[in-house]
Amino acid sequence: MTEYLAESSPRPRARITGVVYLLYFLTAVLAQFFLSRKQVGYSNAVNVIAFAFYIALTLLFYSMFKPVNRLLSLIAAFFSLVGCAIGLLGLFPRTALNINPLWFFGPYCLLIGTLILRSTFMPRLIGWLMVLAGLGWLAFLWPPIARHLSLVIEVIGIVAEASLMLWLLVMGVNQERWTEQASTVCEG
């Protein structure tokens, strides 16, 4: 599977990334559904699957944005993977840390937005939406602000990430521009 992804062109890889993103969204919503029904065991099991999808998504994004800036893409992946690890640990009361995973997903979304803005193969509007989402998630560093703005922050985050997911599913990336940007990085 990884060999296929490495050899495939950027547009199909971007669409696969969109599919993984969609699977993450669906499992996260299902986990919340179970939680709202007080079925914590089912919610936790589905959340583990959701985090697995998000880890895969993180690796796919790293690969997609590596031509834009390898170091920034790596730092973004690091923040996401740490956020996933903290989120996973939070599902198990004995291992839960007193750290909000959004403290890591905020910088992740901010960095993904920055990478999109620096890219030549994706719409800048989606980059700005992701930057706004990242700043919103960072508001959770200050609980009083987050309490007052949580609904607005969640709506911006959902709109930003859903826009990115839908763009990847429907349009993928501009293959010619991605290839140009990737070849510039290889030459430099």
Structural notes for this entry:
This protein has 188 residues and is an all-alpha fold. It has one domain. The protein contains 8 helices and no strands. The chain has helices at 2-7, 10-36, 40-65, 70-90, 102-118, 124-138, 143-170, 175-187. Helix 3 runs antiparallel to helix 4 (70-90), helix 4 runs antiparallel to helix 5 and helix 6 runs antiparallel to helix 7.
Distance between the termini: 29 Å
Largest sheet: none
Q: Helical content, roughly?
A: over 70%
Shape: globular
Q: Estimate the strand proportion.
A: under 5%
Number of strands: 0
User: Mean of residue pLDDT?
Assistant: 91
Task: Note the run of SSEs as H and E.
Answer: HHHHHHHH
Count the helices. How many?
A: 8
Quaternary assembly: single chain
> How many structural domains are formed by the residues?
1
Structural class call reads mainly alpha
Weakly predicted, low-confidence segments: none
Rg, alpha carbons: 17 Å
Sequence-ordered SSE layout with sheet pairings:
Layout: H1 2-7, H2 10-36, H3 40-65, H4 70-90, H5 102-118, H6 124-138, H7 143-170, H8 175-187
Top keywords for this entry?
188 residues, mainly alpha, 8 helices
Brief account:
The chain has 188 residues and is mostly helical. The protein has helices at residues 2-7, 10-36, 40-65, 70-90, 102-118, 124-138, 143-170, 175-187. It is built from eight helices and no strands.
